[in-house]
Amino acid sequence: MRGTLTPRLWATTLGAALAAGVLLVAGILAGSSDLGVGDVLHTLFVGGDRTDYFIVFELRMPRVAAAVLVGASLGMAGALTQAFSRNPLATPDILGVTSGAAAGAVATIVLGGGAYAVGAGLLGFGLPVVACAGGLLTAALVYGLSWRSGVDSYRLILIGIGVTAALTGVVNYLVVRAQLTQAAAATQWLVGSLSGVSWTSVWPVAVTLLVVAPLALGQTRALEVGQLGDDVSVGLGVSLQRHRLVVLACAVVLTSVAVSAAGPIEFVAFVAPQVARRLAGSSRPPLVASALVGAALVTAADIVGRALMPWPVPVGIVTAVVGAPYLIWLLTRRSSAERTASA
Amino acid sequence: MPVTSPPRPAPGAGVAEPPRPGRPRRGGRRATLALTCAVLLVTAASLALGSNHLGLGQVVTGLLHPAEDTGAIVWGSRVPRTVLGLLVGACLGLAGAVMQGQTRNPLADPGIFGVSAGASLAVVVGVYVADLTSVLALLWLAFTGAVLATLLVFGVAALGKGLASPVPLALAGTAVTALLGALTSFLVLTDESTLAAYRVWVVGSLSGRTLEGIWPAVAIACVGAALAAANTRSLDTLALGTELAQGLGESLLRARLVGLGAITLLTAAGVALTGPIGFVGLTAPHLARRLVGSGHARLLPASAAVGAVVLLACDVVGRLIGGQSEVSVGVVLSVLGGVVFVAIVRRGRMAAL
Q1: Phi/psi of residue A40, each to 5°?
Q2: Which pTM does this prediction carry?
């Protein structure tokens, strides 16, 4: 099974897009405050009182938009790293993005003032910028350290493991040493959450996705060829080092911006590409379908977390609870496409 | 057909001798010597160094006379730490080597089969529901959780494509790990007193442990090590790829069962004793592979030795840099281990899996 444009891939992409769209609408309609579906529709199309307007346009819409965009960014980033390294376990985390962002964010929380600063920081400016910078810098460090007249993906992975471990140690140390309230705030951030998302945190993710996604899609053919091994790629005229740099840079930028908006919703980048690949029956994770599955997953998880639970549950927890059983179910099914296409 | 294989035995004469994927290096004996010295050295350092300043002579006196004051320090604190560090490090290193051999994935660490996640969840549930705090209770909780989680992963993989390809195993493990981790985070975020207990346990520490409760863990670890030893040849064969392994007469089901049994028991023993210390299992096999090559007859013991040395050395460093409030071994291990690992990877060409 090869080639990017099989009918099954089209069907998967369309299906995922449809699911994401339906969930997007559902996300605007559903919520914890008792605003009926009719009220929401009325507010949207006719105009409601000030409270309803605020809830729909300033609370629910940015939140749903953030869920879709963050999910799409993480899904695509995961598809890039998994396809690039031909390793289903290689999420952008291994490039140190998440751990770098986490180290930045947790340091801000623990060293930079009390729990109040965290609440304000999540809404405002400071924490996301620090997290994003931490992610980008760490990824640059990993890439730089793996450079020895070129970057080899195996060495890159190992260096990523080392750097990630070091930063995780720092995060753990900070959490252990912090006061309990700060430790709780840090843990909350580390799980990943969309509460407190406003339009100001949505725009960077949207712009990044718009700029980076076309760049990433431009690498589709090189990724396809790359499945056959490095030597074949070079033989078929792929400039390996440039290809690697572009793919990794795309994954890193997508991930750090997404993480800075919503915290490390770690599981999405792993599960979305795997689900998309299995649904599409392709030999590597498809980029667009992975992004759409990611968007659908995070949006669904957010709806479950804020509307269906007795009390709000962070989206990072629900993603794993929703996504993991689905992947497990896919894994337990025998399919003939699987046998020819094990990643 | 592998041309390097020795003359083929008559049909039905048992399992064909698999060709060794990693040729034993010439420096094999030197590596053994170096590892033995390193273990002895780090053991001595662990006994001699700590937040209470004791001279070498006092330590020796203390070792010989447990009843005296110095004896109390040495036997009450340093000996348990040293024993635990060596034992847990060896367990995790060995488990990591079997794990990477089974999954043929350099990113696989013993935690990937949900072992650490299962243990963490069990501990958190225990603290949350019943306010359990005693070391022994947590040990058994962690062990039970670890075993249950592995059984779950194994069940998922077995229900699906079977155990032939390592990919579904790793994927199922990661999925289950994430699921259990999410439940753990949920409980921890709901209840601050659970978070207080959990954040200390999860880092992994050797301090404040006694040898109480170590014997069941030692027994479990021994069974695990025996299984790992029994798995040696299968791991070499599996390195050639599943199909070739089957062609060579390897029973995949048995190879997987023995290997997973070894991984589960070894990791569960380690996690139960000291909390989920992650980095050793991941990196010790990579370092050992550099020393002795990738034939598992040498790689397994070397990984165990490297794991023991690394864990105990980091514990000693943690005691020294923190002064009276020492830095726990899990933290030192990730930070220092991470940096050293990067340096090693940069210096040489790593032997690929």
Answers
A1: -60, -45
A2: 0.75
